[in-house]
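[Amino acid chain]
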Amino acid sequence: MSILKVEIKELLKSIIHEQITEDILNRKAPLFFQLQKHVVEELIHFLAEPSLIVMNNYNDKTIDEQMLIKQSNLDFLLNILFIELTTNKACLNNLPLKNFRIAIMDLVFALFERQKELLLVLNECSLEARNLSITLDVINVLTNKTKQCQWPESFLTQSSTNLGETLPLTKEIVDAADVYFNRNADEQLMKFMNQNINRDWNPLPHESLNQFIESLPAESVPDSTKYHSFSYLRDIPSIHIQTRAKLFYLFNIFVGKVLPIIDLSLPPGSSNLTNQIRAARNYILNTTKFQLFDDALSQTASSAGLSPESVNFDTVKASLAEHPEDTMFYQAYKQLYSNASRTFRRTNDERPWVAVFIGMHSSDGGGPFRDSITRMCAELCSTKLPLFILCPNGRTNSGSNCDRWIPNVFPPNRPISDEFKNQYRFVGKLMGMAIRTRNLLDVRFPILLWKQLVQEKVTIEDIEAIDISSFSIINQMEENIKQVKSLNEYEDGDINNNCDYLFSSIMSELTFDVVSSAGQTYELIPDGFHIPITAANFEDYCMRYRQYRINEFHRQIDFIRQGLYSVVPSAYLTLFTASELEEAVCGKGYIDIAMLKRHTCYNSDSETTPHIVRFWSVLSEMFSEEQKKLFLIFVWGRSTLPNRDDDFSLSFSISRLEPTGNVDDALPKSHTCSFALDLPQYSTKEIAYERLNYAITYCSSIDDDWNMN
């Protein structure tokens, strides 16, 4: 810079005494001579095409290292020239220099305006970068099991800006609440918030959500009444629950800002950034997830102008089902599979097919369609189809999840046939249809299946949840070895000899094989049936055993996932937890009578009419969950209710039935297409129970006007 200043002063002296030539310029100011060439070039570009001043390059050339060096030199020269030409009065008395001064000032002004635009863009980018950095710091705190990470101060200071002055968060109150919460308590609080927060309260922050947080109990003692359904929250002081809810709310505000710039279409392991966001899926509210997911569903819907396909069902053959090909599922698969990825992309309440029951005489007003779904789901979770089998706990009637059906097992080293692959994919397509149209599926699959569908890691605990004895053998073997080693250390004996004795005497018949969930035995390594387990190879055996059990259903579930992702966009679906996906496909897992009651209308009666009161009492107090499902099938042709109030497109209608004989002897009648029930005025609750139970158990055939008979 000092060299340039000296050279420019020498040139200004020369202007007074003599005319500057190229030779004088090169001799007295060699550095300026070289740089002025670049200035002239830039001025010519600028004068010829002024729009170039706002472009990042000229003639679409790629910016390389030489260009960056050149630009840096030019910026430096222009700054020096601008200062000298605007502060030296001699420039105003020389016409060529005056014109040069004007051109330089115009160029500097244009560059200055461009720089201001770039600074604005840079500030916006910086804000996104800061939000992303804060979000990742909070995720580290939430997912750190040791609780050694500190809540970032930059996150807490945003509480007053984003939540308002009435919901402040300070380090002291956050730390005080933090000691009461573990992963289980956090999950229950998120469940409580999702149950009470409307999915339409977006984008965040939202005034209604602020009011919800403010309305939570804020006493320094637990509120077992407010949180009676949440065992991990019942004993936590209310003020700390409210504080934690504020934290989750503020976190979701940040997540909502950064999610649009995250590529969630990447598979697990492809991006550390995406992996971090997915790791926090348990802490992302449904209103945050569904805002993006519902938009993606709308953008990928393809039902415009598509008429529902007609599917012919031979219900008589399906009811006998001597072969898998006779089932309703297989009949639908053969007729729908090829176009399902397109035709299943319907919007809410649209039907992707019209069910034609062969031998019956009316058009499908909705009841037969829903009934076909119900029957297919019943077949999937049965022995009529070879796709799924009852889990080991169910077959032995031990442990938990005895009603769960797992994918059938195939030899690990052999390919699965294309026919089975496509049938599993069709199951996934049906799941996608259920999510899009809210025609939910009554299937009972274990959590490990739903976890793999959202690309969440399956654990040993997930396997034990459907097979309580799955790892009992190797766990016992490891415990025996541990005891032998401990005893040898105490007695200073020969560990190797004692371990060899243990394997030769107690485990001599064990080889490198595994009994699958279906009961077949497979080799874990080539010729494994003939390789005994010894102290030397025991660890390798345990590793291969666990690896097989964890990946036993991987291929089958992956085909289901392929079908699912062909109907619904996969990106935001990977933010769902396994339980959330199960609920989106299957519903809540129980019949919410209170919600059904909210969507019921009465013809000639009211909610307080005595026989209506008795009806609701039977439904809510006397019917089991299975009976409630049968009742829904009886009146609507489906075994599940919508997940939320907004998903009801049709109200349940109850009309009074006036029989010709004794009222207490009459059975109720249903109309599945219109979701309606004709109910006699039963005189007692007990009689109402008997007649309703008989109807839902034995009157399940559809004919004529699709009434249930």
